Amino acid sequence: MTENEIKEIVKKTLASFKFDKSEMTLALAEKICEAVIGYARKAGVNAVVCVSDSAGNPRLVKSMDDAYIASYDVAVNKAFTVVALKMSTSDLKPLAQPGKELYGIQFTNGGRIVIFGGGEPLKVDGKVIGGLGVSGGSEAQDTLLAKQGKEFFDSLK
């Protein structure tokens, strides 16, 4: 099955669902997690997916079978990071390198700030209503899965 075919199936399935995207509800978090897990299965990644609310608190965390134990905390902290800083972890990474303006930020907030890809803020009309954290693959895989999850969220009506 191609990625376009999967997107079409997801689009048809969601046609009957209407979400109030003014806040991160459990139902909305569930749909986002399921979409990311579908993308992860296709990519062959056993991921942990976390969707947080606007305060960075987890609304839902799902661990795929055989996911790394360490991925749980990483996914939760990626979802926290993107809400706390209102930017993706991929965008944060270059700012947190030695000599850059946010160097050392990963040592703040009780060590919860993650400075590598796999986290995306979920915004409605420019306002962050939640965060998405994905962990379990390479940084590139986690980044792609989180971006796909954000695109899925953005496509919801």
Write the layout of secondary structure elements.
Blueprint: H1 3-14, H2 26-43, E1 48-52, E2 58-63, H3 70-85, H4 89-95, E3 119-124, E4 127-135, H5 139-155
Antiparallel strand pairs: 1-2, 1-4, 3-4
Short description:
With 157 residues, the chain is α+β, with helices and mostly antiparallel strands. The chain has helices spanning 3-14, 26-43, 70-85, 89-95, 139-155, and strands at residues 48-52, 58-63, 119-124, 127-135. The protein has a single domain (20-155), classed as Haem-degrading domain (Beta-Lactamase, 2-Layer Sandwich).
Which labels suit this protein?
single chain; about 160 residues; alpha+beta; Beta-Lactamase; four-stranded antiparallel beta sheet; 4 strands; globular
Could you characterize what this model shows?
This protein is α+β, with helices and mostly antiparallel strands and 157 residues long. It has one domain (20-155): Beta-Lactamase (2-Layer Sandwich). Helix content is 45%, strand content 17%. The chain contains five helices and four strands. It has helices spanning 3-14, 26-43, 70-85, 89-95, 139-155; strands at 48-52, 58-63, 119-124, 127-135. A four-stranded antiparallel sheet has the order 2-1-4-3. The protein is globular and about 45 Å long. The two termini are 25 Å apart. The model has no long low-confidence stretch (mean pLDDT 93).
Number of strands: 4
Secondary-structure element series: HHEEHHEEH
Remind me, CATH topology? Beta-Lactamase
Shape field: globular
Average pLDDT works out at 93
Count, helices: 5
Helix content: 40-55%
CATH superfamily: Haem-degrading domain
| Uncertain parts | none
The CATH class assignment is: Alpha Beta
The strand order across the widest sheet is 2-1-4-3
Beta fraction: 15-25%
SSE-based structural type: alpha+beta
CATH architect. name = 2-Layer Sandwich
Radius of gyration, rounded? 15 Å
Number of domains: 1
Main β sheet profile:
4 strands, antiparallel
Distance between the termini: 25 Å
